[in-house]
Amino acid sequence: MKVAVKRVSPPSDDKRWKLVDVTMRRNGYSAHALIETLHVVQNSFGYLDGRAMRYVARSLRIPLSRVYGVATFYHLFSLEPTGEHTCVVCTGTACYIKGAPDLIDAVEDQYDVSIGGTTADGRLSLLSARCLGACGLAPAVVVDGEIRGRQTSEALLQEIGEATCNSTT
Amino acid sequence: MQLDDLKARADELRSEAARSHRIRVCLAASCQSSGAGEVCEGFERAVESAGRGDDVEVRRVGCLGLCSAGPLVAVDGRNAAFSELYRHVGPDDVEGLLDSVEGEPVEQLRCPTDVPFFQRQHKVVLENSGLVDPDRIEDYIAQDGYQALVRAVTEMTPEDVLREVQTSGLRGRGGAGYPAGLKWSTVAKAVESPKYVICNGDEGDPGAFMDRAVLESDPHRVLEGMALAAYAVGASRGFVYVRAEYPLAVERLERAIRQATKEGFLGHGVCASPFDFTIELRMGAGAFVCGEETALMASIEGLRGQPRPRPPYPAESGLWGGPTLINNVETLANVPPVVRNGGEWFASIGTPDSTGTKVFALAGRVENTGLVEVPMGITLREIVEEVGGGVPDGRAFKAVQTGGPSGGCIPVELTETSVEYDTLRAVGSIMGSGGMIVMDETSCMVDVARYFMEFCMTESCGKCIPCRAGTVQLHDLLVKIADRRATSADLALLEELCEVVQMTSLCGLGQTAPNPVQSTLRYFRHEYEERLVETPPGEFLVPLDVVDT
Question: For B391-424, what is each residue's pLDDT tens digit?
Fold first, then answer.
């Protein structure tokens, strides 16, 4: 006997929920697809909020605690929106011994933000990455999705300055 | 599909390719970050505007190896007349290099390939890297790709394939070095079904990017290796688990899986045989512990990536309780040549206990950073000083770190050690997955140990107490020593705690977390001792308000 399962409707009529639905449907609304689904939510909305996690939990018919557990376990999932611009400093071994800590200190001092955080005005998030796999370019930094190798504190501050001021003009 | 058809197709593709000149532009992560994308587009535009689309092919290839000299471009003459490698190529050099297909090489950009960096390497895993366009299955077929799989399913029994892998002596390239043949035969013998094959591409060691290069440069090789493994052990479903930090690898694998399925190398009835095999891609989400096999399986099942006690080993009860074969990317990439050329051929490379080659990501304070593949048995000194070109800026070579956060630092005095699983373990490090970081006299060993401990502390999944609490305490002690606030009692405590964490942790992460501390203590103890103080500053002072009440 087939049991008709009533699907939960998305929290809003935002079109991005369609992408989330497609992913869940493709995986047969299986609980195994939780991580896949959360990836899509994060890529579409930038972060995972309570509303999104509740929707995913109800759609996949798993407890909200499990969704929250997975979302907080993996580093890549963020429960808060990131800043307008991002600066990711690689802290892999090669970058570390070639001076990544100095780069982090420089940005922290200049923008009054600590690693993993966002400035009070929401303009810049300073993040660290375990290893970007660009060890040949150490120390490497990703500013707004663009990777820059062999960085110095001065060059990095200048690049961030340019990136953040471009948005206001 | 029969083997002869595939061979004929490979010959045809090769002779077709030989008819034109070829410009190969490295678009691996490192070159791409130095502007290779722009260079490649420059070539494509220049070829088109010169109307030479028919006799000059611009091919987007994977890693050419010498990452520190990127963007790298190779120019091949028609009918393999010559092949030149060029380094630090910029968009302005495009015209000159395009002219060089028929004229003189561009001297000022030439990257000599008769140097030890290229000569000392022996390419098995990376044989196609830099030659094939990872997005085109035709290029892989032209390099005799998928012939091992077709031969296996049409002419060999699963036992034959298993026997070749056992003869080859191939050991797991993920770090521990467990013999692949033994692992495969355990899964093959298991009676439960369904069985699964998992490719572990959760390359988490900081400073290691070998698997990324293989997945990005030659994804079909990994798929073929998985299919051969599945045939040998009797699995019909496979998963590739890749870090989400490698979006390019994910994209290329997705495309490769689609192409291989379309050509009949994967899917229902592989190459018109009764063998079925499908591969699904799973992305990680940034958890180092997921490189541990039981944690990885939990992650594929959509759970938190926490390890569980073994036994039962995945070979008996793995993914969803089925017998599961888990091998690392590089291990599986070794399988097609093993089956194609025979296990004995593979066993003739390297040393009797560690056969074949190993890919290392050479980085840190070394002249030639990049990806190198060397035969097992080569010494560490040869890798650093000959292949790597030594330490730059006239500084002194101090130590080499292998195995990432689970490995250790080997001092310069011991660099005559040969690269084998057992010899590296004897000097207090491990082969690891292949990160090799060179350190010079400016690197402080206490700080290096602290760095790796911080990594383990953050990445500990929190399931077992020795790892969760132990790594925090170890890190605090290391900070205390580095800040010159520690006494000899703290050092003794550090050593004792290392042993406890090592012996009582649940999984490999905790069990190996003390390795960097222990190996630096073994060889650089004076660096710890010279930071110790007699009495710690400001401790034992009782706040006045406490005294009052």
Answer: 999 999 999 999 989 999 999 999 999 999 999 9
For testing contact with chain B, the best of A93, A127, A148, A159 (most B CBs within 10 A): A93
CA atoms B476, B478, B479, B483: torsion sign: positive
- Give the nearest chain B residue to A70 (CA atoms): B304
The C-alpha of A122 sits at a distance from chain B's nearest C-alpha, in angstroms, of 24
| Span B443-489, pLDDT tens digits | 999 999 999 999 999 999 999 999 999 999 999 999 999 999 999 99
The model's pLDDT over A82-122, given as tens digits with 9 standing for 90+, comes to 888 989 999 888 888 889 999 999 999 999 999 888 999 88
Give the total residue count for chain A: 169
DSSP one-letter string for A28-88:
TT-GGGHHHHHHHHHHHHSS--HHHHHHHHHHHT--HHHHHHHHHHSTT--SSPPPSEEEE
- Report the 10 Å Cβ neighbour count for B262: 11
Hey, is the C-beta of A31 within 8 angstroms of any chain B C-beta? Answer: yes
DSSP state of A136: G
Query: Which residues in chain A touch residue B68, judged by CB atoms under 8 angstroms apart?
Result: 136
Beta partners for residue B397, in sequence order: B440
Phi/psi of residue B138, nearest 5 degrees: -60, -40
What residues pair up with B363 in beta bridges, in sequence order?
B437
Using a pLDDT cut of 70, give the percent of chain A over it.
Answer: 95
Touching B: A residues 51-90, CB under 8 Å: 66, 69-70, 73-77
Q: Which domains does chain B have, with CATH numbers?
A: 3-115 (3.40.30.10), 144-347 (3.40.50.11540), 357-440 (3.10.20.600), 445-529 (1.20.1440.230)
CATH number of the A85-166 domain: 3.40.30.10
Chain A residues in contact with B401 by the CB 8 A cut-off are 93
Task: Locate B326 and state its tokens.
Answer: 């888990």
| Spatial contact of B277 and B153, defined as CB atoms under 8 Å apart | no
Q: How far is it, in rounded angstroms, from Cα B417 to Cα B431?
A: 12
| Binary contact (A70, B303; C-beta < 8 A) | yes
Q: Which of B270, B339, B278, B340 is nearest to B1 (CA)?
A: B270
Q: Domain coordinates of chain A in residue numbers?
A: 16-73, 85-166
> Helix, strand or coil for residue B216?
helix
* Predicted confidence (pLDDT) per residue in B193-203, tens digit: 899 999 999 99
Judge: B246–A75 Cβ closer than 8 Å, yes or no. Answer: no
Question: Can you give the pTM of this predicted structure?
Answer: 0.92
Question: Cβ separation of B285 and A75 shorter than 8 Å?
Answer: yes
Give per-10-residue mean pLDDT for chain B (549 aa): 91 92 90 89 94 91 88 91 92 92 88 92 95 96 96 96 97 91 96 95 88 94 98 97 90 96 95 94 92 96 94 94 96 97 96 95 90 95 94 93 92 95 93 91 93 94 96 97 94 97 95 96 96 78 56
Nearest Cα residue to B410 out of B400, B423, B419, B397: B400
Residue B360: name the closest of B237, B533, B209, B251 by CA. Answer: B209
How far is B304 from A71, CA to CA, in rounded Å?
Answer: 9
DSSP string for residues in B113-140:
SSSHHHHT---STTTTTTTS-TT-HHHH
